[in-house]
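Morning!

As promised:
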Amino acid sequence: MVDDFSKLSGLQLDALREIGNIGAGNAATALAQMINAKIDMSVPQARIMLFSEVPDLVGGADKHVVGIYLRVEGSAPASILFIIPVEKACLLVDMLMFKPLGTTNMDNFGDMEMSAMMELGNIISATYLNALAAFTGLKLLPSVPALGIDMAGAVMDAILAQFGEVADHVLVLETDFRKEAVDLVGHFILLPEPGALDTILKALGVSM
Amino acid sequence: MGKIIQVGMADLKLAKAPDKLMTAGLGSCIGICVRDKSKQLGALAHIMLPLSTQARNADNKAKFADTAIELLVEEMKRNGADITRLEAKFAGGAQMFKFSGESDIMKIGQRNAAAVEEYLQKYGIKILAKDVGGNYGRTITYDPATGDLLVRTIGHGERII
């Protein structure tokens, strides 16, 4: 079993990046439809990182963010994190709820706003996973989303801790979504569990 | 003016006054600070999990409460501290997400806090203060000169313990 991410070859990382590409492409389209704006994504990355490096992907452990977390069950268990800087999350809520931009802020961010963000996380994740499932033939089911508004490190550490018992590194499939190619919307991060890697690599035809 | 030394997740560092130690964005993780007052020497470990014995990979000692505290004691001793005089403060151990039918892993903060307390006591290190639990993150700065632990949060105030 692959329980050490550092043993992955360049070819395998390329294959993982490709599934990240397929998933994120579909998720970007879903996001664009929801907020009625043109959404672009960065080139997806497949990287093996130390735990301590993961919060740097989203601006550092101290960065104030909205984090949406979903667990992926099924044949290849994983965690999904959608991390959005708070000011961007407020704009997203305005777009989702058809309010003038600037209406929502952290002081009036209540249950309704949280629910809107969770729904957004739900749709993006489901779209991403559906594309992945169609491509690999794997069964992938997202859990109900959970939402945290706090420092990026704090939002992520319990999720990273799940990997801590088996490894010092995580495999990160990451994409940034951007509005009109420049304005950051959020970071989409998929963390496959070590035990799921064999399954994914086999489905992609690049197993060890 | 001293430096501020950053400690990452699953990492451990020492500092001598006037330098300070800092770790950002503790959620379920815990920042354990120990100090030898007379030597003005302090150390901070940012742990993620309670016990190395439950893990399949325990190479990084700073990742677990039990081995991190052992390592804190060793490193302090190696740098000239009198380990019979160590004092400790710690912060973190929150539960950031709530799920219905809460899984064990999401209670990790609580388990971390219990393990830190247990192992500090086991090594005979006096606990002067702690700031644990809740559902919010913490960024902490430890001053080996005074032993002050500054806890900053978003929306839950700022305090020195």
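The interface with chain B takes residues 3, 50-55, 60-62, 64, 69, 143-144, 146-148, 150-158, 160-162, 164-168 of chain A (CB under 8 Å).

Hope this helps with the figure draft.
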